[in-house]
Design goal:
The complex is a heterodimer of chains A (about 100) and B (about 500). In chain A, about 30% of the residues lie in helices and about 5% in strands. Chain A has about 100 residues and is mainly α. Chain A has a domain of about 35 residues. In chain A, a hairpin with a 2-residue loop joins β1 and β2. The longest helix of chain A is centred in the first third of the chain and has 18 residues. Chain B folds into two domains: about 350 residues, Amidase signature (AS) enzymes; about 80 residues, no CATH class. Chain B has about 500 residues and is α/β, with parallel strands linked by helices. Classes of the chains: A mainly alpha (about 100), B alpha/beta (about 500). Chains A and B meet through α1 and α2 of A and α11, α12, α13 and α14 of B.
């Protein structure tokens, strides 16, 4: 585990990846909180986990298959009511390419 | 409505009274809305109400009863639903500004099941935003108060649901539990809260926070009611691939609803030494020991046990939680639903940044950013993979302990309900509220929080019974026997 503090530059990069606009004041508070939290996570360093199989879900189920059969969707289009902007029933978005 | 006693009315008593025509479902539903109009401005349990729909449903149940048609155990029962569970046509905000005007376009799996049971839905309850928090103070809309002391928090994140049941503003409620979000508020508010085995209840239509940890469960006045409500919502749902019928020996439903008390009261209960630590409030410890004493008196055998990796659970949990939060909350982008905030440029990217920057509260932002960090290349092995390995060790601890005991008993939270504002400054202080509940979610186990009934004064305190996977009948059976011994007036 490398350095457990986050620099301002790293935070801005993470916010960019997360698509979140942060205010200057938020950044300051976050930087302090993040360093503290990551500092706490350092306790895991002392625990030897070599050879331990990661547990990557809430269940030990492997795959959950269903029969490949025709199904009727009764709720089609229901989400259209929730579109923030629409035109003729279509979802309206700004241009994807600038 | 002379004979309407809110305080001691349970789901079970409601059903009996309904069939005996002591009252109508409509009378009771109206009674609850009256209580809400008188008390909820002070408590703040609800974010939205559906009085019209509720009264219509209550009337429909009364018609069934009048016609002598069969009515199930939950017919007409007025329930409160946490606001991250979708009811078609009702608001579902998850207490976030980003979903402030969102109206659900379909029913959650649990809601479909409860509609079949003809339940009456009173309204949607307040919570920490996207279920991130332990006090309901992270709600974007309001702070819910603890009905036992209005200066204190009800716990969280299902604080509105717990407060609604405790203040007699609903007969029962649904919450969701990712790291203690049903059990901790249940403990703070003096009600019963069950977090089922992972996969026992469908998560379809639950606004996802951390998918490998989230489970929906009941909050009720008694353990018997929790068993009834849990039985109605559990089971395989094709829309949640992790949901399942009980992977347990036969007669699961019968053992859940009609526990064999003779067998149950002689069970062996493990007491893990790692849960009775220095930071544990004396009042909590003494209360839990009182409940142990009662159980001992009716035949329970207690045995010391050890869960050696407990101290790593908090770090392990939050790394996994952050990672899953950052993925799950990526869908809130202002495009398909929820609020859309346009920037000056109003390009696609502007909308993302503005909508998410203004729509998410500070805890959500903290978790999304840290989740992005622990999943990023160069840090993945050190944080996320490491946490998944620790998760395995924690689960192994429970597997080993359950070789020798039937059930594990612990406190629910390190202290009773704390003051509003007391723990908001430092996120780690708030996180520590969940140290006794988190390991259960990591291991996917069932656990119930039950009020210490011997404690008559002061703030409520709960104890936790943890079961083996798919052994809800064990913990709910033992809990019921304990309740029948200590609070017979509830039965």
């Amino acid at each position: 585990m490398s350095d457990s503090s986050i620099s301002k530059k790293t935070l801005e990069h993470l916010a960019e990846l997360s698509r979140i606009k942060l205010e200057e004041k938020e950044e300051e508070k976050l930087l302090a909180d993040l360093s503290k939290i990551l500092g706490h996570f350092d306790e895991l360093k002392s625990l030897n986990t070599s050879g331990v199989e990661p547990m990557n879900g809430g269940t030990e189920f492997k795959n959950s298959f269903r029969e490949d059969e025709e199904r009727t969707n009764t709720n089609q289009g229901a989400g259209a009511d929730a579109f923030p902007e629409s035109e003729d029933g279509f979802l309206k978005v700004p241009p994807v390419f600038e | 409505m002379a004979s309407f006693d809110h305080k001691n009315l349970t789901i079970k008593k409601f059903h009996d009274g309904l069939l005996k025509r002591d009252f109508s479902a409509l009378e009771i539903a109206k009674g609850f809305f009256k209580e809400i109009s008188e008390k909820d401005s002070e408590i703040g349990a609800y974010l939205s109400l559906d009085e019209e729909g509720a009264l219509r449903q209550a009337k429909a149940v009364d018609d069934l009863v009048a016609n002598g048609e069969p009515t199930g155990a939950l017919a007409g029962v007025p329930l409160a639903i946490k606001d991250n569970i979708l009811i078609k046509g009702q608001p579902a905000t998850a207490a976030s500004k980003i979903l402030e005007n969102y109206v659900a376009s379909y029913d959650a799996g649990v809601i479909q099941k409860l509609k079949t049971e003809q339940v009456v839905f009173i309204g949607k309850t307040n919570m920490d935003e996207f279920a991130m928090g332990s006090s309901t103070e992270n709600s974007a809309f309001k702070v819910t108060k603890n009905p036992h002391d209005l200066e204190r928090v009800p716990g969280g994140s299902s604080g509105g649901s717990a407060a609604a049941v405790a203040a007699d503003l609903a007969l029962g409620a649904l919450g969701s539990d990712t790291g203690g979000s049903i059990r901790e508020p249940a403990s703070f508010c003096g009600v019963v809260g069950l977090k089922p085995t992972y996969g026992a209840v469908s998560r379809s239509g639950l606004i996802a926070m951390a998918s490998s940890l989230d489970q929906i469960g009941p909050l009720t006045k008694t353990v018997g009611d929790a068993a009834l409500l849990f039985n109605a919502i559990r089971g395989r749902d094709p829309l949640d691939a992790t949901s399942s019928e009980p992977l347990a020996s036969e007669n699961y439903e019968n053992r859940l609803l009609n526990p064999d008390f003779e067998k149950i009261k002689g069970m062996t209960v493990g007491i893990p030494e790692e849960y009775f630590i220095d930071g544990l409030d004396k009042e909590v410890e003494n209360s839990v020991r009182l409940a142990m004493k009662t159980m001992e008196s009716f035949g329970v055998k207690f045995k010391k046990t050890s869960l050696p990796h407990t101290k790593y659970a908090l770090s392990c949990y939050y790394i996994i939680n952050y990672a899953e939060v950052s993925s799950n909350l990526a869908r809130f982008d202002g495009i398909r639903y929820g609020s859309r905030v346009k920037g000056q440029g109003s390009s696609l990217k502007d909308i993302y940044f503005k909508t998410r920057g203004e729509g998410f509260g500070s805890e959500s932002k903290r978790r999304i950013i840290l989740g992005t960090f622990v999943l990023s290349s160069g840090y993945y092995d050190a944080y996320y993979k490491k946490a998944q390995q620790v998760r395995r060790l924690i689960k192994n601890d429970f597997d080993n302990a359950f070789e020798e005991v039937d059930v594990i008993m612990t406190p629910v939270a390190p202290g009773p309900a704390f003051k509003i504002g007391e723990k908001t400054a430092d996120p780690l202080t708030m996180y520590l509220e969940d140290i006794f509940t988190i390991p259960v979610n990591l291991a996917g186990l069932p656990a119930v929080s039950i009020p210490v009934r011997e404690k008559k004064e002061g703030l409520p305190v709960g104890f936790q019974l943890i079961g083996k996977p798919w052994h809800e009948p064990d913990i709910l059976g033992l809990g019921q026997y304990y309740e029948k011994t200590t609070a017979p007036e509830l039965y």
